[in-house]
Amino acid sequence: MTAPERQHYGLTFSVLALAGISYALLQSLVAPALPVIQHDLHTSTTAVTWVFTSFLLSASVATPIAGRLGDMFGKERTLLFVLLILAVGTLVSALAHSVGVLVLGRVIQGTGGAIFPLAFGIIRDEFPPTRVASGIGFISALLGVGGGAGIVLAGPIVENFSYHWLFWLPLIPTVVAAVATHLFVPESPLKPGGRVNWVGAALLSSWLVTLLLGASQGPTWGWASARVIGLFAVSLVLMAGWIAAESRSREPLVDMSMMRLRGVWTTNTAATLLGFGMYGSFILIPQFVEAPASAGYGFHASVTQAGLFLVPSTAGMLAVSPLAGRLAHSVGSRVALMAGTLLTMVCFVLLAAAHTQRFEIYLASLFLGAGIGLAFAALANLIVEAVPAEQTGVATGMNTIMRTIGGAIGAQVAASIIAATVGASGLPAERGFTIAFAISAGALLVSFFAALAVPPKRRAATSAAREPATARTGG
User: Fold this and answer.
1) Mean pLDDT for each 10-residue chunk of the chain (475 residues)?
2) Given 227, 252, 277, which residue is the final one in a domain?
3) Residue 312 sits in which domain range?
4) Taking a C-beta distance cutoff of 8 angstroms, is the pair 58, 180 a contact?
5) Looking at the structure, do residues 54 and 15 belong to the same domain, yes or no?
6) Based on the number of CB atoms within 10 Å of its own CB, is 203 exposed (0-12), middle (13-18) or buried (19 or more)?
7) Into how many domains does the chain fold?
8) Whole-model pTM above 0.90?
9) What string of DSSP letters covers 418-442?
């Protein structure tokens, strides 16, 4: 009797894609515009950095908790709630005329990080088994596509309008996605219920915040400063307490036995290192190409022109994301992840070895997009294949957080290396970029070995795990 009420999975996919791209744009749009925001709000460099950092911290806390709530009480209901909160935060940011209000809006916006794990769970519930891998792959790629598109679009927006339009424009698709979710996305057929382990949630939030705060403030406070070392030490203690509390809990927020699965921890390791490289590139490539001729390198690009260097990256992600789904069916997502890490590593090897001509940057950017597109799609599919359906939200949420952690560390390490080579002219030396590119390449090489350690796909087990999805799929 319920079958006629369930929407066609194609319509569901369109709504999820709109929701995902709305959040992904908000994640990166402000990064290139921070100097403009600082000038317009008459604030300090340290204060304006919180416009980006607060979003990162909020997303890291909200993503696994909302993913777990979706597993327990319904993914559609939770997704709608998350989109409404994201819309409120975006509206607050659009109306902000002080850095404090803008940071508050960004904190509220960070809740939108849960859109992706919730979307993965809905796809697993609603799509035919043959479409699950490709659907998850494309939605995963949107995180990278939106991130790259945000870097590209930020320049034209702030040069022709005001920073407020960095939020007004994404608000429109966010509201549309919320309405469409309510109207067209079916509620989860699996709602085991239960309760949220708030002690586990508090400990998880605490160690994530202290870790990411230490990483984000490392270049400003100094990596060897007492504050940064203290934050990292507190984070380790809180993490140990979180693991102990979750291991003893009857209803853990994150099942530690799940996190110990070989298919989960190896994929999370690869995700962390991939995030390190991708977020590092968002810092390194724009700064490099914007350097003036007096630096002896770079192309004296404007903010808008710098964004154009990342257009091949965005195009590459869009082009290869459907391929990741087909690879998952033919040879398994593990192969797609290995290929993605290698392509991303090639990007940074090229950047370290050859960066004097524009076409070299464009070519490296294309490799970056193709690699990230394959790898991000494979990461989510590998997690979905490795865990039971009722743990999809929290498991993919934790995988997203591992990318965030890697990204935060990668971006700040890149910034620190560049800052350490600034000379009397006030410009960083070329060798700083070369070293940073080489370190990112090394991180991606380790990510490849983590992908190599992911267990091969077992077709029989995977089919059995997804069998309920066949019965739940509506016309």
Assistant:
1) 58 92 89 85 82 84 84 88 97 95 95 91 87 83 79 87 94 96 83 73 89 84 91 95 90 86 94 87 86 90 86 86 74 90 96 95 94 89 88 85 85 85 87 94 96 78 42 41
2) 252
3) 3-196+253-472
4) no
5) yes
6) buried
7) 2
8) no
9) HHHTB-TTSSB-HHHHHHHHHHHHH
